[in-house]
Amino acid sequence: MIDLDDIKRILELQGGDLVIKSIDNLPRQLEQSFKDSYNISFPEDFKTVNRIVVCGQGGSRFPSFIIKELFKEELAVPYIINDDYSLPGFVDNNTLVILSSYSGTTEEVLICGEKAVKKGAKICGITIGGDLKTFLEKNNYPRYVIDPVFNPSGQPRIGFGYFVGGHLGMLFKLGFIKSARQEIEQSISNLSNLIKDFKVDIGKDNNQIKQLATKLYQRYPYYIVSEFLTGIGNSIANQTNETAKSISSFRIIPELNHHFLEGLKFPDKLKEILTFVFFYSNLYSTKIQKRFAITKDVVEQNKISTLWYELKGKNKIEQTFELMAIGSYLSMYLSVLYEQNPKIIPYVDYFKKRLAE
Q: Which residue range forms the structural domain that includes residue 304?
């Protein structure tokens, strides 16, 4: 197994330090994008829509899921994530459709954009360029065109702070989230201190994320989350798949308590590689905290290994940003252990090439 304290070897595997710089710059991605997107001008009738539909895939989708769950109790209108080629039948001129594609070339998003035009929806978008940027500019739709200076890796899942901050800024500007803007800004400011011990130059004896990655090497992780952290379970599973080239899943409490626990008996061989990673928060509701403890007990009764990680942020926004960072560092360290380059996604690229033929 590669030594996670061997920085020279890590840089060799990654072809330089672009991935590490992007991960370390999550606070700057959030700060830049929240500020810039908040300054976008929207027509007044955008603020009176009665529902929002976000169209996105992969690393341009899960940031919306993070926001949806973090602000579930505060969002003023229904907020729906749309991740295929079709728009819901209810989309009309009272619907805001947000087109979300890092590259600006995601065909599902572009097709939904054309359908949204035909339905008379209000449309805006977030991208770094490509066909989506052209579409938004051509039709003079409000848009946040990212200048990704803090994501030199060029990978959406590693630069996803831009999409979390970008979507948040737009939603705040439109008045659909009622939290204090200062709370977001303060949480971003505090993030650097929360994640300082996750960085590559911090030795594994003092680096909890290096330790976690080592324990998950050659394992099948099930990331367990709940309530306001639900969306980040999705993002960590995504990052583990693409960055570490490793299988992973995420599950949500309380939903898994109603069926999944009975599926832990078989097949026997699964127990040899399965590990449940419980991301625990003292800000979960009392009932959910109790469910976490009992679920861990049931999993261990089935002779399946578990890991327990307690978040340290002092409020829900801080813990959300903290777990976002954990997912990026964890999947990067796993990629090192598997001797994989986190910047390349050969099978996704192959699939897209075949699809375009």
A: 202-337
